[in-house]
Amino acid sequence: MTDKTFPVYSISISGQLSLQLHSLNNEGNEGNQSLTRRYYVVEKGDPEPKFVNGISGDMFKHIQAEHLHRIAIESGLALSEGGKQFHPDRIGYDLDNSISIFTNQDTDLATKTAKVLQRCTLSDLEGFMVTEKKGQTLKRESVIEFGAVVGLPTFVKTQSYFHAKYGTDNPTPYNVQISSGLYATVLNIEAFRIGYNPHTFTYVIDATERKKRLDALLKSVLYTYLQPNGAKRNTNLPHPDYFEGVITVSTRRCPAPMISPLEESYNRQIESIANTLNNLNGEGTIHLFPFQTMAQFAEQIQLLTQKAQPWESNHAEAIE
């Protein structure tokens, strides 16, 4: 690992996360029984798919966006009125409520997209799609992408527990499903797209602001794993007791390698792929930040914020 800073093109995280006694992602209720989210996992050499507990990528994305919202406010980052309120439409809230964003001279997608990115950190990093009244549709894909957090077969267990809700009348019986186990988690950050306007192939915010947004995004990822918000946390607060994996960072136009931790050898494969990509594209193309505990994960995120610099480019990026 170099002591120097480096530009960041993309970032990936592959890890195994242990969560004990949680009920973070429910799909609803059937009678007095809560239904937890489940996924099928198909393993090589096993003709019988495994039905395991999991937490949707939508849930983790919402958790991360919630943390980012708080960080953006605390750090004084640019936010639209909708962004300040953590409204799901973000910049769309401003347009629906006739809050001035565009002038009469702003007629093309390039100019309008630039103003949205400058105005709202959440819209820049988390993505948006909004249709102006009798106007154009503005959209942007999210800079950060989450996969489902899925239980490793044979390493996750879900059980149903009886509860009773007491009130002034007779108690209401109900059953809650609680899960414990080891979960595979993956995410990807296209860091080069922070502040990037694909219509003009230029960055519409300066390097200092892009660095602030990159750091805020990384901090929000750390907070997501430190405090995974979700269902039933008032009485079933998760016990996070283990997190191991690797953060990969690419410094050139090259994907940061990611392998699902559903594969037992994922760590070794990532390291091998990193060596191959460094041989193909030059030393320093891929940096690895491995961790064995939640504490080490926090340390590696801190180290990455110290070393990571915004991607600079005057050439078109093949996106959207």
The total strand number stands at 16
Assembly state: single chain
- State the share of residues found in helices, binned by percent: 25-40%
Nearest-angstrom radius of gyration? 22 Å
Q: What is the molecular shape?
A: globular
Largest sheet: 8 strands, antiparallel
Distance between the termini: 33 Å
Parts with pLDDT < 50 across at least 5 consecutive residues: none
How many separate helices? Answer: 8
The helix-strand sequence is: EEEEEEHHHHHEEEEEEEHEHEHE
Class by helix and strand content? alpha+beta
> What count of domains describes the coordinates?
1
Give the rounded overall mean pLDDT: 90
Strand content: 25-35%
Write the SSE topology.
Layout: E1 6-7, E2 10-22, E3 26-30, E4 33-36, E5 38-41, E6 50-55, H1 57-75, H2 81-84, H3 91-96, H4 109-119, H5 121-126, E7 128-131, E8 137-140, E9 144-146, E10 149-165, E11 172-189, E12 196-197, E13 202-203, H6 207-226, E14 239-250, H7 266-281, E15 286-291, H8 294-307, E16 308-309
Parallel strand pairs: 1-16
Antiparallel strand pairs: 2-11, 2-14, 3-4, 5-6, 6-10, 7-8, 9-11, 10-11, 12-13, 14-15
Helix pairs in contact: 1-6, 6-8
